[in-house]
Amino acid sequence: MTLSPALILLLVPSFALAAFMVLGLYPYTLRRRQVHIIALLGGGLPLLLMAPLTALCAAGHCLGVVPIFTLTVGQSVVALALSLDPLGATIGLTVSAIGAAVLVYSITYMAATSLADLRRFFALMNLFLAAMLTMVLAGDSIVFFLGWELMGLCSYFLIAYNTTSAESITAGRKAFIMTRVADAYLLAALLLLFLHANSVRLDVLIPASATLDATMTTVIAALLLGGAMGKSAQVPFHTWLPSAMAGPTPVSALLHSATMVAAGAFLLMRFAPLMQLAPMVQVAAAVLGVATAAYGAMSALFQQDVKRLLAYSSISQIGFMMLSLGVGAPEAAAAHFVMHAIFKSLLFLAAGDITHGCVEGTDLSSMRGAWTRKPVSYVAFVAGGASLAGLPMVTAGWWSKEAILTAVQGFGAIGQVLWLGAVLTALLTGAYASRAIMIGLMPMRETDMPNAGNVHRHEAPRTGTIWTNLPLMLLATGAIVAGVLVTPIMHFLGAEEPHASAFSVYVAAAAPLLGVGLALALVFVPWLSEGLRNVRAISRKARKMPRRGEGGANSRFVRLALWLNWGMRFDGLYQVMFVRPFVKGVRWLNGYGKAPADPVGTWPVLALVWLQQKITAPLAPDWFDKLWMRGGAGVVRLWALARTVQTGRVRDYGFAMAGGIAGLLLLVWGTP
Amino acid sequence: MTLGAIILLPFFGGLVALFANLIWPRTDRWVALVSLVLGMLALIFVTAEGVLTGGSAAGIEGEAGRWLALHRSDWAPSLGVQILLAMDGFSGVLLFLSLGLGILTVILSWNETEKSALLMAALCWTVATSNGVFLAFDLLVFAFFWELMMVPAFLMIAIWGHGTREATAIKFLIFNTIAGLGLLAAVFYLGSTGENGVTFDAFVIAGRDISPYVQTWLLAGFALAFMVKLPVPPFHAWLPDAHTQAPTVGSILLAGLLLKTGAYGLFRFPAMLFPDGFAVLAPYGLILGSFGTIYGALVACGQTDAKRLVAYTSVAHMSVVLMGICGGVHFSMMGAGIVMVAHAFSASALFLLIGAIYDRVGTRDIRELGGLQRNAPRFAATFALFFSATLAMPGTANFLGEALVITGMFQVNWVYASITLISLVISVVYATRLFQRVVFGASRKAEVKQDLTWRELGPILVLGAGTLFFGLLPQGLMVALDPAVNAAVDGIRAVQK
Questions:
Q1: Which domain holds residue B139?
Q2: CB B358 within 8 A of CB B250
Q3: Any chain A CB within 8 A of the CB of B299?
Q4: Which of A166, A181, A601 sits opposite B237 (nearest CB)?
Q5: pTM value?
């Protein structure tokens, strides 16, 4: 059998899928080493395949669309296909590289888990990887949606990985339900496109959207945007992402930084030609993108938990991608996707290693003393943080962000406003990233670590195992030097040479540095650091906002910071707006109120009962029976009447006899 | 005559099983199993013959390619009643389902001790009567099987049920009998108003020119019977009770088979016999269906009894089937057919799993269950599969069906499409509620210690394989359903023009 292109592409996700099947379904015991080997094969082989495929693609030999098999639904022929184009190759390589790195890292990180849980963990991670790769390599909307949804399912299982913790189960469910709303949008968009183009092939579907009428284009583009925003945790669909940090750190590193949440951005990159036909939706995407970016950065600045900080920064960074997509620069968004994937997964992995086993969990205080406790991981964290902050020239993050800013500036009048918002966000990004880094330099404190003598459950060595250090070092290198790839990636995807004005570049370079200044101010200006300490104390104790004037001298700052720390209290808002009415409604339908349980189903029953009471119950004595009985009584009465004739006296009988004869005689006499 | 064997083999199997123990102890289950397997072989034979010879030679005029097999013989000529059995791909699929589920339930109740012979007989008769429903095209015979179908189900609930089983069985009987009256009245009217004497031949009646007004009333009679059996709100009240009190095998046959007969009737007869009436009533069906799918899902979200929860999800899913049928376009009807099959797999499997849990700990209250993931990994894994099927995860047949229905709804009216999409979101709420209460968490009061046995796992794996197979490679299923879908859609379209 020759290695057909279809087979090669099919193999990419199949390895991960096969690993899932073996780990998840093989009914007999596997040893820990075997589990590791299978998981790494599943995570590594896709990378080994994707690397040459991408290289070939870059050399101009992309595989293009390769049909797998076809289905016939009535008059429609549905061809399922995979495809490899420059976008798919770029993102696919990134995803498989990050996936492999995270799986390697997990070997040490998950060392303390039981064998059964380990199998479940690696099985689900591999299934997730397969789903993401399937989506990236999809050549038609059905396969695309299959990968998209399967990721949602895996994220539910993975966030709720710790199945005895109510917090993680709730977080998983929240993520699943909220992303499902996005899935519904996406499904609607894909089905409408299918009905229009009478094909599910993406290479037919997307060009065919040019012949849609304007309203339909806008509707479909808006649905796509909705789907992307839900999956990518963009405001107002973002609240699931910070909660999802209840999952294990490798899960966050793979799902909630680089791949799954970025899938929304990938969706819009895929459908960029369609999006460009709906300028209104484009502008909406850009505005919502920059708003989300700013929101995420502001909220990240005051987080007390390193994972939540990174979660908000993911929201913010994907907001940048959305902005870029909104201004019609999907190539810059793709470049930022790649850079973000590298540095964000690095940050999660490094932070995970630093805080692993700490008493305070992933609280920011667990980052204290990182420099002395875990130098390797801390250096990696600094590299990732610098890249996230976008320190000019020397980090990868700067280059891709710069490409986005350039594109935004070229977007006309709205572009200037958006640009200003993006630059301010870049400043805040610099601030929160360097805040996290600086905490790592601070010494460990007794107050922050109640059991300081017993920091680690298992004595972790200062330098981790090779399984930890190798991915960290590789990713750290990437976070610094991958900036050189930004321009090639954008060329590869077909972008034109950007023309950035010198002013814009200077401002964009200055912003992160100012942000570092802001972070220093937060630490060293007593008024601010005092306020932060108050924020910390309050946020750790209660979820209640102090009243105006309370919370120390700088009450206004404390209240603002707390509000941002709680993500502008969207959770509470949604609780009031959606969750409570839903729960109330469901409880009402189930008989907790005045209505009977299942009221609609009850009324036919009630009707039958009414029928029984009003119609059949009055008939229950059975009137016919009564009638017959009454008839019987009449017969008895008649009999009694007849009995009175029988008196027993001779004269009565003689009289009657005489009467009878007389009557007869009269009858005979009268007859002619 | 082989078509008749598909009905008669299970029927006589049941009859023999009833008395088999008198002659030789513990042979009832073998008799039941053998008769169902023989029925399956007959079905395979008929299907293969039909497919290889390109359909029935004595086909109905103008539809030569559609019918895989046909059987016609007189029963009571003076009454115009004949035995007219016909099988196309759609009936074939349902027949496979019926016999397959029958075999599965016999295996599941292999160790039943209480009145086992009668249980085996009831299982066989359920299969036999629903096979009759799927095959009969003489309307009187159809109505005969339709009414007969209730008897074994009634017995199963009343004898082997839990809790208030007698009351539930009577409720089931009252609902379905009253609804059946509509069907019976319409059938008698149709039979007696022919120009050439009394006939109940559906193909002859289909060719008749009945005024739209009369058609609407006749269809209302038919639809009442079908919608109660489906069931669609507000006629669903018997189902949650029946499911909750019925034994596991009863629930499986209820969900997998009896509900499907309602859907089958709606799928087959309105478009065939009353296309004008269908055009009048279909919008109301769409409204009922879209209400039902949201309503069933919402009520399911608040259930504490696991079986009752699944029963309400059945209401929601079968309402989607109603929507698909009333949509009357190719996509939606094909989707409805696939949802029927998919739901038979996924709901049966969930009832099986919940029944297995109940056997172990004696409760189905999801507030008391938990910790399957730690204690019983095989339970958890299979539960996860059908959990994802019930919330229509792509890759399962359930998704394929629902996506096709939604596609069709977009062709009919985007409002109905949106409602179906909303129900997809709500499905996650109830599915996760069931899943995480039962599978996740620490073990609560009721701790399941013993994992699935192989005799339970076998049927579940078969159902799981079906769910995934038809989800990933649905071409065969679609080819089988296509002629019936086309015939229905053509019938509806002819009126619209």
A1: 2-496
A2: no
A3: yes
A4: A601
A5: 0.91
